[in-house]
């Protein structure tokens, strides 16, 4: 058959995609299940929302209160119901309409007293609050600080505070709310403090909340002494403010000002205030702070300093904006959206990573490669597959989310959403490719991937979001954090949820694209995607070919033995035939010819010792040349290094030293090209459980550039030749095959497309005799144009198939030659067996001595004796004559004369070699 042209990129891609399609068709349901996961999750969200609405939204506590105002009929049925602030509890009131919110006094925030048992308590008025002032001008500052609180005057119990609001300095220890319709400082039962330079007896006054006369409330006002203190610099002030924090000191700082460079022409002041507000987790609303009075106080003091005591800025009241009645509406999906959807989308990551690592772990990737599948088509098709699955997943998520009515999906512009998700899944796939090179086991990769999934979501909500919302955290660090893919995804989802939660119900549009951080996220992800794709491709290329510059980072000691091997002194005595082969190889290295398909020159493999064990040398300098059309059989006891040798030749492991050429291509450098004309039947079947035998052959046939009718014919023949054709066996999934059938399929795969070099690692293990003979004929037929290296434990097979044999013991070739030669060389004798009654044993010995004086007794038990008779000494006819004579003189139960078998040769060679190795 003519040389086949190696399959082109597209042919390979086509072969792989057809195989994958067949594979995925079988896995259709698991794919569908994966894709509809978003549906389940959306339904889950809707159920949570429904539960939430039933329990929280529709509870009477969460709407404006109503009471029955007219029940004249007395039948218990309400005739007239009135709703509003007046009929509401304090909790309900915040949902009511406020067409005219009540004016409230501006209050200063005073920290809560820390230790009630300390020497002074504010409840008795003995404990002063302080106002700190600092600044650069030592004449202006202290003067100003003195006039800060002198403006206060005693509250006259019969005068409402409203008449003189600007000059009555009131304070509270209660924290402000989210809105100012009801100030907890006034409506709670905590006292209000009137801060004055000097205290007079306590007074009480009352005021109304403005709207309803029924709610006329008396509030207790207590006097508390206010000290205005000058400090030389702002560090001192900060220290004083924070002192109470660390030490258990009552530290009642009501206000603090830094006047900076204020003078009579310029008023420039920094105001300290406590911005800490305890909001609940996940609640993104900001509480009010009590600064207005603080600002007014210093402004008034400054004005009075500049313009004289008559000048005042009156601070009448503070008042909220009017509002309509509201309902509590919490959009659960949007509120927990960022973390929830981060998980949903990240869930694809383990799926992708595990698929990649699985193909590596099961060596499916490498076996495809050995049959000529290049990295390019593999990447392209795998990428396309993952992208398709991910895209479908995302589309389903968006579709189900919108159908179910989640604002998160409905409000935001679909094109922004889709592009965002699409970029992200691309990034995710390339990250999976990148990361997969670090894993070799599915177990570890899936653990790592799930940690990544859940870790990213949790870190996103508890760390990243927290920092993002903290306006003092530098923005560029947020950008740096977004380089982590989990956070960039989180950021995007966060922006979507912000827009979905927005009261205006507008959602994110392209106009808003650069308002939040969305544009940055896009750019970061795109750049990262390209970078990780290139890095992944590079790493993959490096780890599949030997020359990787990053490999030594991963395992810095890997290369050390290479140097130490060089100095190893080889004191082995080589047999003549092995030495001849070595000479032949050396000759070939000098003047290469194409006649030899496989040439190994002094190939060595050493495995690193683990846990303090000695390093194990699997192959000791093997030299071998196999011409095209020859089947070379490798015999050897278990653990002799045959499989290591095949693994090296097929690129599974790198040789420690030495060189090997497959059709002139160096296996360390040009393995990818060598693969295009190679067939491999590995020791363990590497098959896809769900693909049929025919599909396997079609796939590998396409990789070998077979097309159309040639392909079908080759597959058909191949199935027939390995006995997988009848009964439609070839169309059953390989997972259902018996061990022997799998074996036959593996052999058929290795031979399809007439490869020039075929390696078979124990091809006939587990086969019944009939199939074995069948298989042998197939291999024999394939041999004509191909170099085959075959390992086997069956001497029969070796004798039948191999043109030459090498016996391999402890990593060394002990002898090499064709089966006949070997038998002649190592056998060289007949085995004569005779069974008589035990009385005649002596007679038998005599008989043998007669025939051949140098015969050796090798076996003797209960009348049966075996002798080894050197071939040179006897003629067979003499033996027959002697036996005939003996038969007449005593009774011979049985006798036999056998030539040495290959088995005898094998045992002999293996024994002597091992004995030699033990004693050397
Ligand atoms: C309090 O106000 C009343 C009525 O306006 C007035 O008669 C009284 O003198 C005031 N008391 C003080 C101490 O200013
Ligand atoms: C502030 O500085 C002045 C002069 O530099 C000094 O006399 C005074 O003791 C300082 N006050 C404080 C509270 O450190
Ligand atoms: C401090 O303020 C006073 C009054 O405004 C002004 O006369 C004086 O020049 C200021 N001193 C400095 C050092 O700015
Ligand atoms: C106010 O003071 C700060 C700090 O000294 C200074 O950076 C700022 O420019 C000043 N502002 C004005 C308007 O002078
Ligand atoms: C600031 O306010 C928080 C919350 O009310 C409080 O726990 C904290 O002690 C206050 N800090 C200072 C320095 O007063």
UniProtKB/TrEMBL annotation:
GO terms for cellular component: membrane. The lineage of its organism: Eukaryota, Viridiplantae, Streptophyta, Embryophyta, Tracheophyta. This is ABC transporter domain-containing protein. GO terms for molecular function: ATP binding. It is found in: Membrane. PROSITE patterns: ABC_TRANSPORTER_1 (PS00211), ABC_TRANSPORTER_2 (PS50893). It holds the Pfam family ABCA12_C. Keywords: ATP-binding, Membrane, Nucleotide-binding, Transmembrane, Transmembrane helix. It comes from the Eukaryota. Residues 598-835 form the ABC transporter domain. It comes from Eruca vesicaria subsp. sativa (Garden rocket). It is a multi-pass membrane protein. SUPFAM superfamilies: P-loop containing nucleoside triphosphate hydrolases (SSF52540). The chain crosses the membrane at residues 34-52, 336-357, 378-404, 416-435, 447-467. Its main location: membrane. Belongs to the ABC transporter superfamily. ABCA family. CPR flippase (TC 3.A.1.211) subfamily.
């Amino acid at each position: 058959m003519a040389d086949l042209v190696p399959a082109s990129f597209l042919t390979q891609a086509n072969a792989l995609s057809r195989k994958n399609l067949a594979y995925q068709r079988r896995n259709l349901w698991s794919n569908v299940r994966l894709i509809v996961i978003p549906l389940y999750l959306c339904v889950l969200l809707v159920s949570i929302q429904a539960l939430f609405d039933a329990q929280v939204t529709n509870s009477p506590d969460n709407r404006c209160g109503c009471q029955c105002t007219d029940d004249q009929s007395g039948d218990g049925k309400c005739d007239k119901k009135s709703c509003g602030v007046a009929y509401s509890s304090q909790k309900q009131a915040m949902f009511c309409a406020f067409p005219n919110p009540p004016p409230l006094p501006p209050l200063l925030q005073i920290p809560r007293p820390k230790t009630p048992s300390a020497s002074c308590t504010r409840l008795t008025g003995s404990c002063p609050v302080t106002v700190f002032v600092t600044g650069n001008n030592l004449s202006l500052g202290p003067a100003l600080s003195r006039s800060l609180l002198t403006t206060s005057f005693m509250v006259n119990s019969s005068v409402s505070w409203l008449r003189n609001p600007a000059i009555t300095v009131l304070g509270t220890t209660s924290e402000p709310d989210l809105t100012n319709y009801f100030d907890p400082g006034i409506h709670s039962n905590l006292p209000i403090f009137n801060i004055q330079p000097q205290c007079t007896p306590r007074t009480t006054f009352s005021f109304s909340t403005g709207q309803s006369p029924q709610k006329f409330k008396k509030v207790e006002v207590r006097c508390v002494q206010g000290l205005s203190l000058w400090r030389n610099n702002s560090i001192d002030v900060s220290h004083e403010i924070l002192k109470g924090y660390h030490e258990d000191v009552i530290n009642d700082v009501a206000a603090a000002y830094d006047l900076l460079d204020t003078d009579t022409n310029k008023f420039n002041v920094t105001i300290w205030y406590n911005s800490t507000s305890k909001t609940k987790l996940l609640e993104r609303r900001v509480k009010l702070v009590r600064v207005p009075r603080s600002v007014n106080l210093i402004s008034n003091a400054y004005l009075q300093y500049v313009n004289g005591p008559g000048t005042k800025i009156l601070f009448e009241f503070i008042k909220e904006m009017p509002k309509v009645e509201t309902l509590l509406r919490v959009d659960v999906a949007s509120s927990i959206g960022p973390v929830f959807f981060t998980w949903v989308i990240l869930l694809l990551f383990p799926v992708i990573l595990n698929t990649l690592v699985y193909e590596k772990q099961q060596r499916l990737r490498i076996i495809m490669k050995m049959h000529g599948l290049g990295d390019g088509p593999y990447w392209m098709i795998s990428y396309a597959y993952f992208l398709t699955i991910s895209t479908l997943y995302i589309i389903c998520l968006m579709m189900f989310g919108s159908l179910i009515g989640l604002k998160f999906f409905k409000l935001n512009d679909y094109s922004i959403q889709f592009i965002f998700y699409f970029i992200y899944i691309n990034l995710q796939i390339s990250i999976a490719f990148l990361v997969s090179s670090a894993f070799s086991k599915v177990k570890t990769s899936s653990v790592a991937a799930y940690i990544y999934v859940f870790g990213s979501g949790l870190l996103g909500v508890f760390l990243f979001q927290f920092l993002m919302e903290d306006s003092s955290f530098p923005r560029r660090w947020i950008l740096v954090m977004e380089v982590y893919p989990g956070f960039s995804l989180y950021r995007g989802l966060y922006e979507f949820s912000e827009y979905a939660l927005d009261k205006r119900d507008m959602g994110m549009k392209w106009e808003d694209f650069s308002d939040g951080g969305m544009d940055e996220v896009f750019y970061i992800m795109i750049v990262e995607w390209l970078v990780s794709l290139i890095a992944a491709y590079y790493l993959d290329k490096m780890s599949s070919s030997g020359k990787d510059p990053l490999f030594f980072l991963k395992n810095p000691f890997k290369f050390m033995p290479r140097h130490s091997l060089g100095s190893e002194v080889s004191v082995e005595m080589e047999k003549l035939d092995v030495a001849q082969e070595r000479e032949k190889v050396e000759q070939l290295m000098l003047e290469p010819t194409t006649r030899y398909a496989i040439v190994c020159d002094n190939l060595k493999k050493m495995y690193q010792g683990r846990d303090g064990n000695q390093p194990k040398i699997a192959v000791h300098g093997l030299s071998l040349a196999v011409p095209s059309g020859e089947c070379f059989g490798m015999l050897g006891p278990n653990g002799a290094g045959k499989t290591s040798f095949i693994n090296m030749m097929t690129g599974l492991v790198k040789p420690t030293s030495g060189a090997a050429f497959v059709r002139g291509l160096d296996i360390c450098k040009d393995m990818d090209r060598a693969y295009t004309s190679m067939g491999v039947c590995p020791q363990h079947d590497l098959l896809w459980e769900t693909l049929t035998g025919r599909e396997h052959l079609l796939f590998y046939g396409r990789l070998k550039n077979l097309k159309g009718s040639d392909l079908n014919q080759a597959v058909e023949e191949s199935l027939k030749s390995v006995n997988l054709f009848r009964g439609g066996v070839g169309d059953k999934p390989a997972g259902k095959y018996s061990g022997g059938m799998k074996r036959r399929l593996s052999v058929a795969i290795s031979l399809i497309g007439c490869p020039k070099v075929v390696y078979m690692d124990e091809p006939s293990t587990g086969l019944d005799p009939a199939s074995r003979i069948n298989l042998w004929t197939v291999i024999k037929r394939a041999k004509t144009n191909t170099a085959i290296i075959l390992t086997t434990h069956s001497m029969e097979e070796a004798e039948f198939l191999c043109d030459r044999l090498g016996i391999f013991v402890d990593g060394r070739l002990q002898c090499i030659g064709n089966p006949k030669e070997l038998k002649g060389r190592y056998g060289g004798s007949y085995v004569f067996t005779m069974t008589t009654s035990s009385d005649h044993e002596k007679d038998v010995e005599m008989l043998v001595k007669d025939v051949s004086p140098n015969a050796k007794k090798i076996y003797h038990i209960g009348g049966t004796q075996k002798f080894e008779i050197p071939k040179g000494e006897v003629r067979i006819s003499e033996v027959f004559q002697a036996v005939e004579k003996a038969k007449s003189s005593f009774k011979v139960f049985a006798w036999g004369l056998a030539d040495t078998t290959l088995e005898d040769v094998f045992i002999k060679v293996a024994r002597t070699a091992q004995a030699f190795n033990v004693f050397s």
